């Protein structure tokens, strides 16, 4: 039986030679800049070494592989998420803040959906975020088992919704057109194909007065509020 992959979080960290002047933090920061502007396909150890004015060999003292680097970068994003203490905001307001903070982080780092489902999130920032999230949802009054499910439900909703949002924004970017022009064209085509479906015709007409950013945000806010309504109703039984 094959052993499970030895993740960077459980592997003993190598000591770099005294002559090496880089740090893992510098490497992660530089790689994040590349990813945020060029995406996963634009990141290579060679390009990262050039950005840091260092050879690829130097980088390998700090990260063994590109996969290790991706693990570090994902965990860096989890460290940006705001999960307030329930005593400060109450569990529901805290959950709202957590959900919006998570969405904002993914929008800042649109490469994340491409890789976050391909590996476990078990780094220190992920553990800290998860721990604070469990405390937050525990304050709502869920049973121990349901605390995990409630937190997981909110994360699944946010990550699923914002992943679709990232994909939509990427389609607009690749089109080379403005958001307004792209949306207008899509709606005009939708009007044509919705001709035999009166309810869809009404839906298309309702969307013509809303810009893309407002529409995506309204969709997110409505869904998150509805999900929290449902969770709140479970603990009020």
Automatic annotation (TrEMBL):
GO terms for biological process: negative regulation of DNA-templated transcription. Residues 44-63 bind DNA. Pfam families: TetR_C_1. Residues 21-81 form the HTH tetR-type domain. Keywords: DNA-binding, Transcription, Transcription regulation. InterPro entries: DNA-bd_HTH_TetR-type_CS, Homeodomain-like_sf, HTH_TetR, Repressor_TetR_C, Tet_transcr_reg_TetR-rel_C_sf. One of its GO terms (molecular function) is DNA binding. This is TetR family transcriptional regulator.
């Amino acid at each position: 039986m094959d052993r499970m992959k030895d993740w960077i979080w459980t592997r003993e960290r190598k000591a770099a030679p005294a002559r090496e002047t880089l740090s893992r933090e510098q490497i992660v920061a530089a790689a994040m800049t590349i990813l945020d502007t060029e995406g996963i396909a634009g990141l290579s150890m060679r390009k990262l070494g050039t950005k840091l004015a260092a050879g690829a060999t130097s980088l390998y003292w700090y990260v063994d592989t590109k996969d290790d680097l991706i693990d570090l970068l994902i965990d860096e994003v989890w460290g940006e998420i705001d999960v307030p203490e329930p005593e400060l905001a109450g569990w529901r307001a805290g959950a709202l803040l957590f959900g919006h903070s998570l969405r904002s982080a993914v929008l800042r780092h649109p490469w994340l959906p491409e890789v976050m489902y391909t590996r476990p999130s078990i780094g220190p920032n992920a553990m800290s975020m998860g721990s604070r999230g469990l405390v937050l949802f525990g304050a709502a009054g869920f049973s121990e088992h349901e605390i995990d499910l409630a937190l997981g439900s909110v994360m699944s909703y946010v990550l699923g919704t914002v992943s679709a949002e990232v994909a939509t924004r990427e389609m607009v970017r690749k089109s080379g057109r403005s958001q307004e022009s792209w949306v207008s064209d899509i709606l005009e085509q939708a009007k044509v194909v919705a001709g035999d479906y009166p309810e869809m015709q009404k839906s298309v007409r309702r969307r013509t007065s809303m810009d893309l950013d407002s529409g995506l945000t309204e969709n997110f806010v409505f869904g998150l509020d509805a999900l929290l309504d449902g969770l709140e109703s479970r603990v009020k039984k």
